[in-house]
Design goal:
This protein is mainly alpha-helical. The chain has one domain: Arc Repressor Mutant, subunit A (Orthogonal Bundle), CATH 1.10.10.10. It has 8 helices and 2 strands, in the order H-H-H-E-E-H-H-H-H-H. A two-stranded antiparallel ribbon has the order 1-2. The model has no long low-confidence stretch (mean pLDDT 91). It binds iron/sulfur cluster. Iron/sulfur cluster binds next to helix 5. The site of iron/sulfur cluster has 10 residues, from helix 5. One of its GO terms (molecular function) is DNA binding.
Length: 158
């Protein structure tokens, strides 16, 4: 099993926004710090905006930020959103399915249950859980001139 690039990018975009709550971030900045293509980030941003996860401001001083608090963003919901378009197995899409075993396949049911368990775990995780107190991530993604006080203290101690 492997996540699509878009799902992974969506998580990176949301984490970058959550780590920089007081600032609008540009797509190009996210692409640079996340080591990915600005075009791919833009596609993901468009979808996240359409689904109400982020808001964007156009223009020279524009950029993007979270459209709702990080503790109200379910990672499971984000993953479902981006993964749903690609069926996990051929038989999961009745319109394109050509698998001759579909009518009698037991594997299909087990795979469905395993996927539900996978999403269930992620449903219990919020964006806030990923970033709160994560000074390592803050150091990687922060675009503020200074680290938050709690992380700055942490740096001095180590
Ligand atoms: S073998 Fe079973 S699980 Fe795989 S595509 Fe066919 S019906 Fe689905």
């Amino acid at each position: 099993m492997r996540l699509t690039t878009r799902t992974n990018l969506a998580a990176r975009v949301l984490m970058a926004c959550a780590v920089n709550p007081d600032r609008l971030i540009r797509t190009s900045e996210i692409a640079a710090i996340c080591n990915c293509s600005a075009h791919h980030v833009a596609v993901v941003v468009q979808r996240l905006q359409a689904e109400g996860y982020i808001s964007t401001l156009r223009g020279r001083a524009g950029g993007l930020r979270l459209a709702r608090p990080a503790d109200q963003i379910s990672i499971g919901a984000v993953f479902r959103l981006f993964e749903a378009e690609i069926p996990f197995a051929e038989c999961f899409d009745p319109e394109t399915n050509t698998c001759p075993l579909t009518g009698s396949c037991r594997l299909r049911g087990y795979v469905k249950r395993a996927l539900e368990a996978f999403y269930h775990e992620l449903d219990m995780v919020t964006l806030e859980d990923l970033v709160r107190g994560n000074c390592g991530l803050t150091e990687l993604l922060s675009m503020q001139p200074q680290m938050p006080a709690v992380c700055a203290t942490d740096q001095v101690q180590h």
